[in-house]
């Protein structure tokens, strides 16, 4: 995963987007992350560490899509 996150292809791929979100959240740890949607949910949990408790809003292990705020 580290190799995929370090890559910088053009156009951006999925792991590059996760890296960008991860970097923003590292700089702004009090921001909330709304995380949903099958593979995106699973990958984001593994890539994006949360610094502040209760700032990741997701559907849980057997959740469904649709918790994201508009």
Give a count of the beta strands, DSSP E runs of length 2 or more: 2
* Main sheet overview: 2 strands, parallel
**Secondary structure: helix percent:** 40-55%
General form: globular
Low-confidence blocks of residues: none
Trace the largest sheet across and list its strands. 1-2
Helix-strand pattern: HHEHE
The tally of helices reads 3
* Rg, nearest Å: 12 Å
Secondary-structure class: mainly alpha
Q: How confident overall, as mean pLDDT?
A: 84
Question: Topology of this protein?
Answer:
Layout: H1 2-6, H2 14-27, E1 33-35, H3 38-47, E2 56-58
Parallel strand pairs: 1-2
What does the model show?
This protein has three helices and two strands, in the order H-H-E-H-E. With 70 residues, it is mainly alpha-helical. The protein has a two-stranded parallel ribbon. The protein is globular, with a radius of gyration of 12 Å. The N and C termini lie far apart (30 Å). The model has no long low-confidence stretch (mean pLDDT 84).
Short summary:
The chain has 70 residues and is mainly α. It is 41% helix and 9% strand.
Please describe the structure with a list of short key phrases separated by commas or semicolons.
mainly alpha, 70 residues, 2 strands, two-stranded parallel sheet
């Amino acid at each position: 995963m580290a190799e995929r996150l370090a890559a910088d292809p053009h156009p951006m791929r999925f792991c590059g987007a996760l890296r960008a979100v991860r970097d923003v959240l590292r700089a702004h740890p009090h921001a909330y992350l709304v995380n949903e949607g099958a593979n995106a949910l699973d990958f984001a949990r593994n890539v994006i560490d949360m610094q502040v408790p209760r700032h990741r809003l997701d559907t849980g292990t057997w959740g469904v899509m649709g918790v994201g705020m508009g």
